[in-house]
């Protein structure tokens, strides 16, 4: 389907001149294993009727299905640039009747950050494939209150019926046809219009928090009459009930409205609902809360909050009931920031509780668990916050579940991973259970920067929330994230071209972590904070000179700065504060910059920059990459396409057919001595990921319908200089993928098209633009016989024919490509 769209656009665009052929090549794509999730897991849901069936949802990295070996399989990797907001999963429902049916409420933000409305994704095959049912409003998978839930529920007695609780005051919605179409439940109280508005993200109303069917009120085959709905509201009624399948609603009598109800979990055998409350919507907040048990038959509420007084300094999030052992329940502190998270367990419906850990005499504690992070050792017992104790148990704990078929098997989600175990009943006997980091297969990091130096580890990453890594293996998780300094989020990373073990990375402003620039001289194993960095400077992009002596830093709020030999950074006033930057990888004194339509060059180690050339009509350059072997051979991606210069930016060729480009990278050439393979996240008759082995003349599309990589403009690329064809894609929510070409690159399809070569020269204030347009086609090399019509007949690294069949002349196109065009 994508291919078809691509060809259609190619034909349609024939009047706008370009030359190239796009074919596709099968790539194998795998996650670079970080192995521990890496971000917030707001929801985990077990199917109550099919043993072993469970799913997890994440806020920026899609949904996952649990495997029998406790690992997880991603379900939404098909989400491409147009469907990037599918990776924000605000609610998940697994059908208790036809268990192969799965529903996901997706959409990233309810504010302007995401212009798109949400959708219910519907699967009838356990998440292997989905159809989308569009909603007339936004869904906020990465909004405050995303750990409440679930907002989406399937009627357990009549599974064609679903209810979905919207955000933003949009009310309660119902489907009677397995999610295909939705209508608003207008009888639902308008309290959602005035519901709690979170403080963050434009203070949008969190709206409906959860929908819980009381299965016991109905009979199989008929709609369930009694449904409870929790609303993110405090100070007035926030739990409502219908006893007639949604025709009329009333506030549940006797409820305590002091806090926001995060979860309402049914214990069917007890005919009870357990509700966790917090004073904030979460996931980061909560300093007070409570837990209540509602006896449905008696219509009575009981406060069963496990702690009180000064022990209560958090709200409550996750609630789990053991369907095998009625009355056995667990609740999680939503955020107990110090000294660690906390989980409580009761075997008597909340009358008495025991804890996951306890103080003996401060600062000693009894930990009633054995901790293992062997699947993600970088999580470590001292993950991130080394000053505030060992937060092994976690934080942002909204997802807490006990396997409905196995009282020993439990899982919970945190701000960083999933933990779980298979000996939970030991809690009630020896009071010592195993706790394992069990997010294997879940990769939900937001990647900020990637490099693949020519020696040392093949990949180093700058990662949101968890710092970054030297990936000495792509298939086993790293042992530790970067440290000294340790930042939550690293913004960028670069290596020195002539001394590739010298690496620079920058952070985004963890004030507690001091300098936000650091250097490594051993490929990222050990680090030294950059002593010349001011404490209040952070973020942006960074480049290091070929010899490793000079760091050029385009900060997020303090302009462009430069430092040589660890001296204090000084302002570079000749480069705009919006510039993208790069270092030459061969000549230590050379740096590049781009801003608007201007390309800048520095030949004095970044002290001063001057406009060297023009990037056509570009208004927003994205990335500069440099051919590591040739000083002055640079590529620039922009909102108006892809530009190539071989003279340090004095003149640029606009690469034909590329209408917009984001991340770009150069990697090992197809043939020894040839031009580096060029990779681009770009619009080449359609948005995708492409490779060119001939410096931008012909392209192969390397991603497929199963690998969309989300938002193209958010992603970063690097290509391996040691392995031809290998590219790394850092996504905004699904971690890092690496792709390898499967078999030989196919010949480009012969495609009639036209070409324009634009070279723009800026001399002083005069800019001249040359355009040449030819109608042409291109085809694959044909060995030592003369090249055929429109075939390649020369270029750096070219070993094929250098003459053309009769009627055609070998014509220079660029240093890397000559082509047989009609004589
Ligand atoms: C409602 O909950 C708050 C907070 O837990 C508590 O202080 C208050 O006493 C409760 N009100 C009633 C009537 O139980
Ligand atoms: C639980 O078991 C682990 C491993 O044997 C041990 O280190 C820990 O001290 C035990 N916890 C308690 C409270 O006995
Ligand atoms: C950074 O902090 C220093 C010292 O506190 C101060 O002099 C300087 O003005 C600050 N710079 C900016 C851009 O805020």
From TrEMBL:
InterPro entries: CBD, CBD_sf, WD40/YVTN_repeat-like_dom_sf, Xyloglucanase_GH74. One of its GO terms (biological process) is xyloglucan metabolic process. GO terms for molecular function: cellulose binding; hydrolase activity, acting on glycosyl bonds. Belongs to the glycosyl hydrolase 74 family. Pfam families: CBM_1. Residues 1-21 form the signal peptide. This is Glycoside hydrolase family 74. Keywords: Carbohydrate metabolism, Cellulose degradation, Glycosidase, Hydrolase, Polysaccharide degradation, Signal. Coiled coil: none annotated. The keyword Cytoplasm does not apply. Residues 750-785 have a biased composition (Low complexity). Residues 785-821 form the CBM1 domain. It comes from Lyophyllum shimeji (Hon-shimeji). Residues 740-785 are annotated as: Disordered. GO terms for cellular component: extracellular region. The keyword Protein biosynthesis does not apply.
């Amino acid at each position: 389907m994508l291919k078809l769209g691509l060809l259609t656009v190619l034909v349609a665009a024939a009047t706008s001149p370009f030359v190239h052929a796009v074919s596709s090549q099968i790539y194998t794509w795998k996650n670079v294993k970080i192995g521990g999730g890496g971000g917030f897991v707001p929801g985990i849901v077990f199917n109550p009727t099919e043993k072993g069936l469970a799913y997890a949802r994440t806020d920026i990295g899609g949904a996952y299905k649990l495997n029998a070996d406790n690992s997880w399989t991603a379900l939404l990797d098909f989400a491409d640039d147009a469907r990037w907001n599918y990776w924000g999963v605000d609610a998940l429902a697994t059908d208790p009747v036809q268990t192969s049916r799965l529903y996901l409420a997706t959409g990233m933000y309810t504010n302007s950050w995401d212009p798109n409305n949400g959708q219910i994704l519907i699967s009838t095959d356990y998440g292997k494939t989905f159809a989308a049912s569009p909603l007339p409003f936004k869904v906020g998978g990465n909004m405050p209150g995303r750990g409440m839930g679930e907002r989406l529920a399937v009627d357990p007695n009549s599974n064609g019926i679903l209810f979905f609780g919207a955000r933003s005051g949009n009310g309660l919605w119902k489907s009677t046809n397995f999610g295909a179409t939705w209508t608003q439940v207008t009888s639902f109280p308008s309290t959602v219009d005035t519901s709690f508005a979170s403080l963050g993200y434009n203070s949008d109303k969190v709206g409906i928090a959860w929908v819980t069917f009381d299965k016991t009120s109905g009979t199989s085959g008929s709609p369930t009459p009694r449904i409870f709905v929790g609303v993110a509201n405090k100070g007035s009624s926030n739990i409502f009930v219908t006893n007639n399948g949604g025709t009329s609603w009333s506030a549940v009598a006797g409820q305590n409205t002091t806090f926001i109800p995060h979860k309402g979990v049914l214990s069917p055998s007890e005919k009870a609902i357990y509700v966790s409350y917090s004073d904030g919507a979460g996931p980061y907040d909560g300093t007070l809360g409570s837990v209540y048990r509602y006896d449905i038959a008696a219509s009575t509420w009981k406060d069963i909050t496990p702690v009180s007084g000064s022990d209560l300094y958090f709200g409550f999030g996750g609630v789990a009931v053991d369907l095998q052992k009625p009355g056995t329940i667990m609740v999680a502190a939503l955020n107990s920031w110090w000294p660690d998270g906390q989980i409580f367990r009761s075997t008597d419906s909340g009358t008495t509780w025991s804890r996951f850990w306890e103080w003996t005499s401060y600062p000693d504690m009894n930990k009633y668990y054995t901790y293992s992070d062997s699947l993600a050792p970088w999580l470590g017992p001292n993950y991130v916050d080394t000053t505030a104790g060992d937060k092994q148990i976690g934080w942002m704990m909204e997802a807490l579940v006990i396997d409905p078929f196995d009282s020993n098997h439990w899982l919970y989600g945190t701000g960083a991973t999933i933990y779980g175990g298979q000996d939970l009943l030991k809690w009630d006997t020896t009071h010592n259970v195993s706790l394992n980091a069990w997010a294997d297969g879940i990769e939900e990091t937001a990647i900020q920067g990637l490099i693949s130096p020519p020696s040392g580890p093949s990949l180093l990453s700058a990662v949101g929330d968890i710092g970054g890594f030297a990936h000495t293996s792509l298939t086993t998780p790293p042992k530790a994230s970067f440290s000294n300094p340790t930042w939550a989020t690293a913004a960028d990373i670069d290596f020195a071209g002539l001394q590739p073990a010298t690496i620079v990375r920058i952070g985004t402003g963890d004030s507690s972590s001091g300098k936000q620039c650091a250097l490594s001289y051993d490929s990222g194993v050990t680090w030294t904070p950059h002593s010349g960095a001011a404490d209040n400077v952070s973020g942006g992009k960074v480049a290091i000179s070929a010899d490793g002596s000079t760091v050029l830093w385009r900060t997020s709020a303090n302009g462009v700065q430069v430092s040589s030999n660890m001296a204090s950074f000084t302002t570079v006033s000749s480069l705009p504060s919006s510039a993208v930057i790069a270092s030459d990888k061969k000549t230590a004194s050379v740096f590049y910059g781009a801003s608007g339509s201007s390309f800048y060059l520095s030949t004095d180690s970044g002290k001063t920059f001057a406009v060297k050339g023009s990037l056509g009509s570009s208004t927003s350059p994205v990335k500069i990459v440099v051919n590591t072997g040739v000083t002055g051979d640079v590529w620039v991606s922009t909102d108006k396409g892809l530009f190539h210069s071989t003279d340090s930016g004095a003149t640029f060729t606009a690469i034909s057919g590329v209408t917009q480009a984001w991340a770009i990278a150069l990697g090992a050439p197809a043939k020894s001595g040839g031009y580096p393979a060029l990779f681009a996240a770009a619009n080449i008759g359609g948005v995708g990921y492409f490779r060119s082995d001939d410096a931008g003349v012909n392209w192969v599309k390397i991603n497929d319908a199963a690998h969309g990589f989300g938002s193209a403009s958010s992603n970063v690329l690097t290509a391996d200089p040691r392995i031809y064809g290998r590219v790394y894609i850092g996504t905004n929510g699904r971690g890092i993928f690496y792709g390898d070409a499967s078999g030989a690159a196919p010949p480009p399809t012969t495609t009639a098209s036209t070409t324009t070569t634009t070279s723009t020269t800026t001399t002083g204030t005069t800019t001249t633009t040359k355009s040449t347009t030819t109608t042409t086609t291109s085809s694959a090399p044909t060995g030592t016989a003369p090249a055929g019509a429109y075939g390649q007949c020369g270029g750096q690294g070219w070993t094929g024919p250098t003459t053309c069949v009769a009627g055609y002349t070998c014509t220079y196109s660029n240093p890397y490509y000559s082509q047989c065009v009609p004589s």
